[in-house]
Amino acid sequence: MFIPAGGWFKYELEGALRLLSRIDFEVARTPGHCLRFAALGLAVVSECGHFEFWGQVPARALWLAFQLHDVGKMAIPWAFLSKRRRLTSAEREMVERHTEFGENILEFFREWHRAGRLKSPLGRFETTIGLRLAREIALYHHENWDGSGYPRGLRGRSIPFLARVARVVDAADALLFPRGYRGADWHPKKALEFLRQGEGKIFDPEVTRAALRLITPVAEAACPECPNPTCPLLQASLLQ
Ligand SMILES: [Fe+2]
Ligand SMILES: [Fe+2]
């Protein structure tokens, strides 16, 4: 991820994104999570409206910010992320600290970017905005609407909007897509039910309703036999 540049080392943002996708694929066994997260995050922001503000923010900056939500996982012992066994409370506490580690890592990225030492796939303005938003998302994406989340226990609208979107999107992705550590006991309709039940408790009600408007037609169109472990589509998504 470090590349020499005229005597200085430059940090390559694309390298961090590649590393995160490898952590998703090989360690956490949630292949494609960051990409789906960013895609659904953008769709939910757009479905929520507020175009007078979010319409001004470059979509590529939002894309970058959502993809970096779990950047703090780079600093967690990877054995804890693979979840092959039940974590002890000390290990779980460490995993939960990926939010604060993420904030710290993004502060470094922002400093290097300001100093011209961060190579980014995006333009300078988009990178500046993207990293600022990424910091908020990384730190607060496990806060719950009712104050029961971490790391700060913020509640309601004191949680930044994009972090409230991220909370719903993270849960939706975990529930809707097969994960390596979970058997084939999930069903898209169960995911919808879980999201509905969490509205106003774990999840921001407005954001939940927007996400449900997007996800419901897709989940309801799912094959009635889902999850059928012999389904070639399921096999393909587990193997990708
Ligand atoms: Fe996370
Ligand atoms: Fe995540």
UniProtKB/TrEMBL annotation:
Q: Which PROSITE patterns match?
A: HD_GYP (PS51832)
Q: Which residue numbers delimit the HD-GYP domain?
A: 8-227
Q: Which residues form a coiled coil?
A: none
- What Gene3D superfamilies would the database entry show? Hypothetical protein af1432 (1.10.3210.10)
Write one Pfam family the protein is assigned to: HD_5
Q: Which domain of life is it from?
A: Bacteria
Protein name, as recorded: HD domain-containing protein
Whose protein is this, by species?
Thermosulfurimonas marina
